[in-house]
Amino acid sequence: MNLIVDIGNTVAKIAVFDGQDMLEQVYDSNQTLSRLSEMYDRYKPEHAVVVSVIDLTDEVKKALDSLPIFKLYVDYRTPLPIKNLYETPRTLGYDRVAAVVGAFDRFPYRNILIIDSGTCITYEFINAEGEYRGGNISLGVAMRFKALHCFTGHLPLVQNVEPDLDFGVNTDTAIQAGVMKGLEYEISGYIDAMKQKYPNLLVFLTGGRHFPFESKLKNSIFVDKFLVLKGLNRILNDYKAFVQKR
Questions:
Q1: Architecture of the domain delimited by 2-107+228-245
Q2: Given 21, 55, 65, 95, which residue is catalytic?
Q3: Which residue, 82, 170, 197, 223, shows the most beta carbons closer than 10 Å to its own?
Q4: Where are the domains of the chain?
């Protein structure tokens, strides 16, 4: 069994896989990993893989070091089942790569656009030759609401999102509709533009954020919020196989 640790900007996700099957997934603090020992004790996995987009706290390091198993820390030197064409691999968030690996593992040798909705919105593209061509980073939903509040004198910080608003009828709903419609059109625009270049393009939507407009997108998409975890599991399995052959 494999233990998967994905430490994000807002939360950490911990999962256990038996082969390709995910047995359990939990959310945890990205500052403490307080549930890590609980997950280890429950399943006793033999190997672990860790990816982080933030600097690890001393408490997190201590929690990881306490695990009496091999741990693969994913970085630019980690072997991948795809070709990475990113020009600055040292600066690349490898949660992004893991999502790409997860999608390509499910549909090998297809052109795929992966849209990850977390703290940021990321757009990643891998072609049918298995080449990761790179991606874009955009503001996440919470960032957009916060930016409107922080960079203006009187606009409120809106948190509750009303579903399916075309136009606001007061300041709060105007902000809600502006942010959510803007994001809907942004995502639809990316999909439409990429479909023009790659007519058989597959699209994955992943991440912790649910968008009310998912069902309204004209293009069929696959929704898999565990794509990063599945990609990390594949990376770890490939690494174990690579080590065994040496």
A1: 2-Layer Sandwich (3.30)
A2: 95
A3: 82
A4: 2-107+228-245, 135-223
